[in-house]
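Could someone model zinc ion with this protein?
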Amino acid sequence: MASPKQQIIIDGGSGIRILSDRLMSGTFGSGRGPFHIFMTHFHWDHIIGLPFFTPHFLPGVQIHYYAVQSDIENLIKGVFRKPYFPVEFKSLPAKIFFHVLEPRKPFVLKDMTITPYKLDHPDECWGYKIESEGKAYSHCVDTEGTRVSREELAGDLPLYQGVDLMYFDAQYTFQDLAEKANWGHSAAQIGLDLAFRESIKQVLFTHHDPGASTQQIQDLKGQTLEYYNWRLEHAKDCNETIPEVKWDFAHEGLEVKL
Ligand SMILES: [Zn+2]
Ligand SMILES: [Zn+2]
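Reply:
Sure, complex below.
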């Protein structure tokens, strides 16, 4: 029998509670772990779901936390602290381990290789390139995408190269981006430009504005399509060939097979 594939979780926003429900009800994997949670950074929207990840309360279950940030242990322990949360970290029944990752150095978990690369965000934030069985996924959230040229990206360029699927921050419209410099989020056009240049096969845009309605996200999608078509036409006019890029805006519960 083939051994089960390695699974990892990135960050612990509100979505991790839904994942937790699915794990516990047996509709997705097993609730027995071990679980491997890779943290990009520690802004509220990336940690707020962690106390509601049920495996923390199961005796004997192993949970491994990983981050480049060397104070990961204190940062996670701080989430389980009174009066923010009634159960203190030391009372959690699960066995919890902390691992500090080295920047840009591959980390191997069974059939998976995970490499952290730096993103452009006001507090230190690390994206991940995850490679397994010849496919590569690139997690680029949260990022403003202020460094785009190959020279500027330098050691972080591999995050965008040889990628089958990139998950990219597109909170703002391209017009908003100028007004919201240093807010740490990007626009779909920046992600598409990277995808065209580096031949990224597929892009999912995410980190929608918390206040955005479905209509506003549809509007962003419309603007992105206009830009996409313009890039293809412009390339044709200039006799340039640019690769076709499959892209969409992500939504909760979306599953993608590579
Ligand atoms: Zn953030
Ligand atoms: Zn965020």
